[in-house]
Design goal:
Layout (H helix, E strand, L loop, with lengths): L1 H23 L11 H24 L4 H20 L8 H20 L6
Length: 117
């Protein structure tokens, strides 16, 4: 079960890396858009996170408050990404909002201590 937890954690991290990379590669572009890399990253991170919570539940009791906060932020990111995927461009406010939410979710994961990190 520990191996499964590590694999899911790895996929979760890769998902957020893809999402963040898809955002950061556009930081200097005058027109921003939601890319397939951002879609795949957000989807992978969200799904791997859900599965990871299931594994953590079987190993003990994860911090449900932290899980809830990460779930809410991740769901907002996923909905915003999916809702704007087919648009040729997105407003700068949405772009920077997605960037801030992504960084916030990573910060919650890193700085909010828990037994299984």
């Amino acid at each position: 079960m520990e191996t499964l937890r590590l694999v899911l954690l790895f996929l979760h991290i890769l998902g957020y890396a893809a999402l963040l990379g898809g955002l950061l590669v556009q930081v200097r572009d005058p027109e921003k858009k939601v890319t397939s890399l951002m879609r795949d990253g957000a989807g992978t991170a969200f799904l791997a996170g859900l599965l990871l919570v299931g594994v953590l539940e079987s190993l003990g009791s994860p911090d449900h408050t932290k899980v809830g906060v990460k779930f809410a932020i991740g769901l907002i990111i996923l909905v915003l990404v999916m809702a704007n995927l087919r648009k040729p461009r997105i407003p700068d406010g949405l772009y920077f909002g997605l960037l801030a939410l992504t960084i916030a979710n990573i910060a919650v994961a890193v700085f909010w201590s828990s037994a299984h990190a």
